[in-house]
């Protein structure tokens, strides 16, 4: 019996070996290589010298990079907040045992199955002043109606928010719904007996119980914020001008368009550290709570 267990254990290690090698070489290896390039004077090709933090100094003296950080901060706050709110409301709606629940779940979750490129193109057409909502309003008789955010430098970033919230809210809905289905029915019975309004039960009791679902949704949404690129390119190309520039587009432009892999690598490491700074504390707190609960 002991020998059989040992054979099973060895087989399990062999089975996970390819994935372990992938993580070590493809992920950790490329991270270390990027970090090394970021402290070199690399331009078109990698260089083996060491220039310290000069690439990072150049990066944060670059107005386009600073604008991209400003844009992604505005985008991130709005995107995460709206996705959590809309996703939670959709989950509450479906949790009321509505008719055609399965069909509604599919409808709300379907946009998440689409690529960000497809989403960007769809919303580019919808928001195009000559083809989309503005033109429809004009044909309906509202000649003075104006909805040209996608070509407005001050509003372009908000069109990215609209498109990506439409796409990602269904994911949050699915996560929240799984949490709501885990709420004990006795809580609702007690609330009805005590005459407590449903909104108060959701706010004071249910939402705190959805902590794991909310934190999971937050991490997934935050990673999507850092990675946002496809929707920007499909909708605005970072424009008008650089009005909707984001860090991922900045990195891709300097990596391939301007052949400056040193600066692009420095920007990549900054994004990586940003993700770690947000995700690591959440992971630590979550594990600590789990250990205390055990």
TrEMBL record:
Q: From the Swiss-Prot or TrEMBL record, state where the protein is found.
A: Cell membrane
Q: What is the name attached to this protein's record?
A: ABC transporter permease subunit
**CDD domains, per this entry?**
TM_PBP2
The residue ranges of the ABC transmembrane type-1 domain are 69-282
Name the GO cellular-component terms.
plasma membrane
Name the Pfam families for this protein.
Answer: BPD_transp_1
- Residue ranges crossing the lipid bilayer per the database entry: 12-33, 72-94, 106-126, 156-180, 201-226, 261-285
Membrane topology (UniProt): Multi-pass membrane protein
GO terms of biological process kind: transmembrane transport
Family to which the UniProt record says this protein belongs: Belongs to the binding-protein-dependent transport system permease family.
**Keyword list, A-Z:** Cell membrane, Membrane, Transmembrane, Transmembrane helix, Transport
Q: In which organism is this protein found?
A: Duganella radicis
Look up the domain of life of the source: Bacteria
